[in-house]
């Protein structure tokens, strides 16, 4: 009887230790800094009309990190997405022809050399190329307006992971449904 109680106690201790380890690992993984060197920009709203199911490319400039350190992009995702499908996210170098765009038909955009966004090194102001995030989207047929309310960029600097949520809004209207400005 005593050996069964001892065995049960050891199993409970092992189980509790395993659960504590998982909690610690999840906590460490979720520690992401919010006030890193890549600044939050001013709000920008881009609106255009496009047929449902037809991909288009939305371009937004990546702000360079403040200070003297480069930032490495680890992920980019749209926030507050409704009525849109994201068909791709890449980058382009604005010093190479045709990269500076706000919106363009198709995905990937025709005539623009694209780069993988993950792993892209963003140099401080004046020390390297300036990049633009290219986001391929398609308005869903069941939505007269497709939209996204922000773009979250996750990046690393010196072994620390940060994220910045840029207040960039996209609205794609069905043809003829865009309000007059």
Please provide a written account of the structure.
The chain has 181 residues and is an alpha+beta fold. The protein has 2 domains: 1-31; 44-173, Immunoglobulin-like, CATH 2.60.40. It is built from 1 helix and 11 strands, in the order αβββββββββββ. The protein has one helix at residues 2-29, and strands at residues 44-49, 56-61, 71-79, 84-93, 103-105, 121-122, 131-139, 145-148, 150-157, 160-166, 168-173. It has a 4-stranded antiparallel sheet, with no helix packed on it. It has a 4-stranded antiparallel sheet with strand order 6-3-9-10, with no helix packed on it. A 3-stranded mixed sheet has the order 1-11-8, with no helix packed on it. The protein starts with a helix and ends in an 8-residue tail after the last strand. The model is unreliable at 4-30 (pLDDT under 50).
Could you provide a short overview of the structure?
With 181 residues, this protein is an alpha+beta fold. It folds into 2 domains: 1-31; 44-173, Immunoglobulin-like (Sandwich).
Q: Please, how many domains?
A: 2
What gap, in angstroms, lies between the N and C termini? 82 Å
> Could you list the spans in which at least 5 consecutive residues all have pLDDT below 50?
4-30
**CATH domain topology of the largest domain:** Immunoglobulin-like
Q: Rg from C-alpha positions?
A: 22 Å
N to C succession of SSEs: HEEEEEEEEEEE
Main sheet, how many strands, which sense, barrel?
A: 4 strands, antiparallel
């Amino acid at each position: 009887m005593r050996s069964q109680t001892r065995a049960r106690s050891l199993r409970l201790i092992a189980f509790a230790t395993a659960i504590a380890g998982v909690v610690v690992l999840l906590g460490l993984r979720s520690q992401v800094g919010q006030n890193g060197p890549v600044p939050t920009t001013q709000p920008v709203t881009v609106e255009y009309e496009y047929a449902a199911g037809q991909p288009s490319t939305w371009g937004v400039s990546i702000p360079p990190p403040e200070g003297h350190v480069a930032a490495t992009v680890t992920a980019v995702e749209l926030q507050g997405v409704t009525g849109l499908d994201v068909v791709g996210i890449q980058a382009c170098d604005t010093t190479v022809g045709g990269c500076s765009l706000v919106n363009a038909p198709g995905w990937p955009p025709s005539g623009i050399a694209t780069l993988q966004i993950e792993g892209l090194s963003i140099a401080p102001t004046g020390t390297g190329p300036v990049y633009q995030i290219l986001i391929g989207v398609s308005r869903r047929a069941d939505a007269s307006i497709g939209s996204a309310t922000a773009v979250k960029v996750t990046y690393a600097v010196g072994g620390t992971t940060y994220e910045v949520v840029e207040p960039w809004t996209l609205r794609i209207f069905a043809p003829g449904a865009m309000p007059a400005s």
